[in-house]
Write a structure and sequence with these properties.
By secondary structure, the protein is α+β, with helices and mostly antiparallel strands. Helices cover 30% and strands 24% of the residues. It has an eight-stranded mixed beta sheet with strand order 2-1-7-8-13-14-6-5. A two-stranded antiparallel sheet has the order 3-4. It starts with a strand and ends in a 7-residue tail after the last strand.
């Protein structure tokens, strides 16, 4: 029997809870989620959706696409919970229902597929003293209303995300962000994330990285997130990046250290231009031979 888990979000952050495995709900969820899996990756069960690497400047997939992040780390112990369900606390509706943000279960041999569904707060019934809820019930042609005195939730009609190995797949970054902390891929990076970025193997780490990171303004921090999401530093060698920068018409000067790493400028204006180039938001025009352009959103065709 597979286990159904809950993701709750409290003031302490996101945590995993185990929903009682003795309940029929685990089997019901597994059956429902597995049916939705094929629709997640295909259009009407026929044409397969194209898998596209997530880019921070494009947050929602087209109808025929699925976005993915490689080398995803969940950060809240999802894999550990799957390996040993008893290692996480039981979901207590009386305490946890107001904080329920999502559910997940596994599919396939070896539980290699993790299927996630976002829980819409509007789909929750949270019991309060004196409340009387009624829900519509139809069975065997008989239609009636039954009084609901406990906590309830409703499954959605579609999956929000799928994790397979090192890959996290989703169709809406905003929805996926409600389940996972994906801030480093999109939003304004924290000082800690900037320090982590400055420690990248392709970046010449400043002598005092924390102090250097404090000097980054909001634009720099948003660009750092975009650079991390785009992943050029993981795909291209520093000197290859320098060569490509010199070919641009935007006068992007990228210096390489003696150790062969990209130097992030101390000057704020120069730093912004380097980060823009690394985030791939400086683009060429087919109609203008003299200039490159800054773009707010870019993605591969």
């Amino acid at each position: 029997m597979t286990t159904l888990f809950a993701i709750v979000k409290t003031n302490c952050g996101r945590e995993v809870r185990r929903i009682d495995t003795n309940s029929k709900i685990s089997d019901a969820a597994t059956s429902e989620f597995t049916k939705q899996y094929s629709d997640f990756f295909s259009l009407c069960g026929a044409e397969e959706r194209k898998k596209r690497r997530f880019e921070a400047t494009w947050t929602k997939a087209n109808e025929n696409e699925v976005l993915f992040i490689e080398n995803f780390v969940d950060g809240i112990g999802i894999s550990d919970a799957i390996k040993d369900p008893t290692s996480v606390s039981i979901f207590d509706p009386a305490k946890d229902m107001p904080y329920l943000r999502g559910m997940f279960t596994t599919s396939g041999e070896g539980f290699e597929k993790i299927l996630f569904q976002l829980v819409d707060y509007r789909h929750l019934i949270i019991r309060a003293k004196g409340d009387r809820w009624w829900y519509f019930w139809e069975s065997g042609g008989r239609k009636t209303y039954i009084e609901q005195l406990s906590y309830s939730f409703c499954f959605d009609s579609k999956l929000t995300a799928v994790c397979e190995g090192r890959f996290l797949y989703f169709r809406s970054f905003n929805n996926a962000s409600m389940l996972f902390d994906l801030s480093k891929y999109m939003k304004e990076a924290s000082v800690e994330t900037v320090v982590e970025f400055l420690s990248h193997n392709s970046i010449e780490t400043p002598e005092n990285a924390s102090e250097f990171a404090e000097a980054f303004n909001s634009t720099h921090k948003r660009l750092v997130s975009a650079v991390i999401g785009y992943g050029a530093l993981d795909r291209l060698a520093p000197r290859e990046i320098q060569v490509r920068a010199k070919k641009s018409r935007a006068n992007v000067d990228i210096d390489i250290s003696d150790s062969g790493k990209v130097i992030i400028p101390e000057d704020a204006v120069a730093r912004e231009k380097v980060l823009q180039f690394l985030a791939n938001v400086i683009v060429s025009s087919y109609l203008d031979d003299d200039s490159d352009y800054e773009a707010q959103a870019t993605r591969r065709l």
